Amino acid sequence: MRAKLVSMTAAAALIFAAALLHARAGGGTVSGKVTYEGTPAKPKPIDMSKEPSCAKQHPTPVMTETVVTGPNNSLENVVVYISAGAPDDAAPSQAATFDQKGCQYIPHVLAFQVNQPLKVVNDDQTSHNIHPLAKINHEWNKSQPPGTPPFSEKFGKSEFIPVKCNIHPWMHGNFAVLKNSHYAVSGGDGSFSLPNLPPGKYTVTAWHESYGEQTQEVTITGNETKAVSFIFKAKPY
Amino acid sequence: MGKLFGVILTIIALVSAYPIVTHKYVQPEDISTHGHAIDEQLSDTMAESGFAFLGSQLLLAFFVWKFSERKAGAKISNIPGGAKLMVVAAFILIGTEVLALGVLGQKAWANVYFTAPKPDAMQVQAQAGQFAFYFRYSGPDGKFGAIHPDKIDEGNQNFFGLDPANDVESRDDIVSGELAIPVNREIQLLMHAKDVGHSFYVRELRIQQDFVPGLDLSVHFTATKTGKYEIVCTQLCGLGHYNMKAYLNVLSQEDFEKWTKQKISEQ
Q: Side by side, which strands form the sheet with A118-122?
């Protein structure tokens, strides 16, 4: 009898723990696609001839990345994040890596959290000068000669920061410094997914460097997946 | 000891003159119609200053040789006329030299910088900014679109600040990182600086002209040989100065038309 009670309590505790874990790891998901309507600007080839070590890495010219589109009008490099409704999260200790390779920023749009370490890597045979044009955070620029080890930085406030290289004018990227861990950057097919959202009312914001911001309200009640799509107006110029 | 110093002076003077007299350092190839005048002027300047250098060094060596071992109590002889005559003579000598260089040289200089380009010269705009050159062609409509500094968007290759959304003339403008020009056609380069002082220097063209912020300057030249030549910035302009360069691509008329077509399709 006693053994039965113990085993039943244990089973109940296990179920409870599993339910708790599930609530933390599971929760609702907001997923969808970012697309555009209209005619986007044509990407332009970048002339890197002044930097032969970079130019030779690209058999065909690299194109500008301010607007990157995919099949079925999908829009890449859009940061989709929870702008309201979710509490601020503690910064993860794992660094977000921003690579400079072939005189390009990889990735073009890098999203990470407030106070999360940012690791800046120079994989080129030339010097770069990384210059995030921050307005809310402290603005800095740092030189990184070839062969120097990566350096680490942090941003203390949430902000979208354009990044440029002071040596190579065509180099251009973006940092999205966000308050919580619920964010995604749309991929080549324009899709995104924000999993693990506890029940609640959220504001989902999509940010594009040329086309601006859009928001939508979403209510999550359980373990459901809510489909949300964003359509940006493309401009030819 | 004094005599040895005279010998050393003579050796130094002759050894320094040797590579120049024998043309050991050849001029880079000249690919412009006016370059020969600049080269002749440089060679005249070198001859004149070389002659003065050798003359003064050898005279100095001679005096050291002859008078260094004066015996104690020997009489010191003065040049008649004293210091006054020497100063006057030096003024006349140096003044003539400077004037001669100026008078002879102005012809070469004025030919490049003080004459207007021919009316049919092709206009290309050159913009220097930290740390790259960009060039703009007016495109099929023959008109340059207006520049709006607030519209400059380098990540989008809008280095000149064009406004194609509202300004129709700027839509067909060709913007390029290299200066492609047709051979044997006069080019007028309209130069402006985006930020600080820079300079446009092509050795083979014998052209060197500063970009001055706030000033619209221009140079004109005609390239006579196809090929790729380096354009470098020769005004210290900041941390990336060492890396500020572009290429001059002199093309045959046919290739230039092909290049233009290709660029139009990319805009």
A: A104-106, A96-101, A118-122, A151-153
- Cβ-based contacts of A44 with chain B (< 8 Å): 156-157, 266-267
Query: A129 contacts in B (CB within 8 Å)?
Result: 239-240
Q: Taking a C-beta distance cutoff of 8 angstroms, is the pair B181, B223 a contact?
A: yes
Q: Please check whether residue A166 touches B, CB under 8 A.
A: yes
Average pLDDT over residues B174-188: 95
Q: What is the pTM of this model?
A: 0.83
ipTM above 0.85, yes or no: no
Q: How far apart are CA B162 and CA B53, in angstroms?
A: 54
Is residue A226 within 8 angstroms of chain B, CB to CB? no
Q: Residue B177, SS3?
A: coil
- Cβ-based contacts of A126 with chain B (< 8 Å): 243
Task: List C-alpha distances in Å: B115 to B100, B104, B162.
Answer: 22, 17, 31
User: How many CB pairs (< 8 A) connect A and B?
Assistant: 70
By C-alpha distance, which of B19, B205, B144, B239 is closest to A165? B239
Residues linked to residue B191 through DSSP beta bridges, in sequence order: B126, B217
- Band of residue A20 on the pLDDT scale cut at 50, 70, 90: very low
For B103, the token pair is 């008078």
Return the amino acid letter for B135. Answer: F
Q: What Rg, from alpha-carbon coordinates, does chain A have?
A: 22
Q: Please state, in angstroms and rounded to a whole number, the distance separating the CA atoms of residues A85 and B92.
A: 89
What local confidence, expressed as pLDDT, does residue A21 receive? Answer: 44
Question: Residue A79's closest CA among A195, A177, A200?
Answer: A177
Phi, psi angles (nearest 5°) of residue B188? -110, 120
Q: What is the pLDDT of residue A13?
A: 52
**A75, A229 contact by CB (below 8 A):** no
Contact A166 B239 (CB under 8 A): yes
Smallest CA–CA separation between A171 and chain B, in Å?
A: 6
Establish if B154 touches chain A: CB-CB under 8 angstroms: yes
